[in-house]
Amino acid sequence: MTVEALAVVMRRHEGMPILERSSLRKFSEWLQYAHQQGAFVLIDKPLQWTSFAVVAFLRRHLHLRRIGHAGTLDPLATGLLILGIGQATKFLSHFQQLPKTYETTFKLGATTETDDAEAPEQLRCPECTVSELELHSVLQRFRGEIEQIPPRYSAIKYGGRRLHELSRSGIVVTPKPRRVFIAELELLEFTPPYARFRVICSAGTYIRALARDIGDALGCGAYVVQLRRVAIGPYTVEEALRPEELSQYVQLHASVQTTC
Predict the structure, then answer these.
(1) Architecture of the domain made up of 100-232
(2) Is 90 exceeded by the pLDDT of residue 247?
(3) CATH of segment(s) 3-97+236-259
């Protein structure tokens, strides 16, 4: 193998480095950019963490305040978050507009107020009688450009307040539908009442709303029981670091610097 083949290539955006698993050998260079100018990092968000909790974790361990992310994941979702540090935060909107890829599991025959497993289940069909043929037929309606009403429990603002705040206050409102694009909606596995999908969609798409609407179209209801974001454009969760891994690299770098 040549020296060139062994060289580590660190991807950049707007001239600032992106820390990924394949470029960890350049961690020291990335950390210097993060402190002096700006940098990006791919993080695999753990279950039950809020997206802000990931931001707070990085602030504590990197000792930097100016950190943001390029798209919220619900606490019950896992997967790829792209974070910007320092001047890189100005360019996070570039990532927000990229298509997103998810792997998700819906439970058919029931609904919840939040359209996911955060709220108690309300059974609509005690026994799911939907066939795989019926499911495939309904899925056809949800490919391409569709109209989608955001979930009542979401961060979208309505009259200056977030929808989830209004809903938890007992105020029921109906947000305006939005046009989104579903580039791919593939049924990966169907074991009633559970159906697992791969979804590639435009920015602004709610997978919880997709589950709700597919369930309504089937006449039995549905909600999200598992959701993982596996890609944002060309960036994949396989290249993302777990928060504790990033912390270990920060500590290792600090110990090396102390020794030197």
Answers:
(1) 2-Layer Sandwich (3.30)
(2) yes
(3) 3.30.70
116 is catalytic: no
Instruction: Read off the pTM.
Output: 0.91
- Which one of 44, 74, 115, 116 is the catalytic residue? 74
DSSP, residue by residue, 78-113 = EEEEEEEEEGGGGGHHHHHTS-EEEEEEEEETEE-T
Please tell me the least confidently modeled range out of 4-8, 110-114, 193-197.
4-8
- How high does pLDDT run on average in the chain? 91
What is the pLDDT, as a whole number, of residue 70? 96
